[in-house]
Amino acid sequence: MLPQVFIAASELLKKKIPCAGHFLAPKRLWLKRVSTPNCDLVVCFPPGTDDQFLLWLLPKLKQSTGLTIHVRYHASTQSSAFYVTASNQVLLHAAEEYHLSKALKPSKGGGLKEFFVQEQDFYEGSESAEHFFTTEERQWLVLRVLESVRAKKEELRVIPSVTLLEGQPIVPKFLTSGVISQVFPIHEPPALERLQQTWVQDIFAKQPLDEITEYFGVKIGMYFAWLGHYTTALSIPAVVGFIFWTIQDVGYVVFSIFNVVWVTTYLQAWKRYSAELAFRWGTLDQRDDLLAEPRPLFR
């Protein structure tokens, strides 16, 4: 009798507070949950998504990309989701297609070089297929492969509320139109725990920028690199400003001139440092224009 009371109470609370449904899943669901191994991305659909649409989309994504997709139904939110991953062979071909840079072995000259499947043995870590790609690289490649699926002529009106164009990537279109609610990567708990110990908890230690970039990607790594660089550089005008503050009127004028010089110097220093990081992380000469989606009507 008591479990039924708790279930009824949770259902009532979820009706009053819709967002509480994420946190009030019945205990039996947690006990019977099934983990999805080797998952890189999750594609979530809004509650009430038509099953026929999911049955159409699932084989299309599998056949077009070779991705491995598991379907899960989340009873707490009454929505479905695709748990997406890729085999090593799919990742290797995607890395070549999207010009992913990998580190060469010292015996092959070292440094970074665009990946080619035929030269796989030239790259560091190629002996282990499981660890050859980092978590961020795997997720980026899977997302690129997922976004490469395009609409065919006979599929333009698969959903009446969404108008597709022939050759248009369907996943970004469904995402912007609300047919897909969100696409997000899966965290890796051991890596997060290491970052928490070496970065979050150790506040006086130097930021592990390489580890941050390896896990979160270059954009996030570059942001925290700039944040640390800028915070450190601000200590100079802070000290100088305090000294000039004691001089009063003349100090204000001199401090204004100093700020102009400091800003110019800081910008040049950051340009050099950011270029160094971009070279280290393989994005200094990245060909972004090749990754841009062509217009759907382009011929």
Automatic annotation (TrEMBL):
Domain of life from the UniProt record: Eukaryota
Location(s), subcellular: Membrane
Positions of the Anoctamin transmembrane domain: 212-299
Tagged with keyword Transmembrane helix: yes
Keyword set, alphabetical order: Membrane, Transmembrane, Transmembrane helix
Xref: InterPro entries: Anoctamin, Anoctamin_TM
Cellular component terms (Gene Ontology): plasma membrane
UniProt entry tagged with the keyword rRNA-binding: no
Family membership noted in the UniProt record: Belongs to the anoctamin family.
PANTHER family: ANOCTAMIN, ANOCTAMIN-8
Name of this protein: Anoctamin
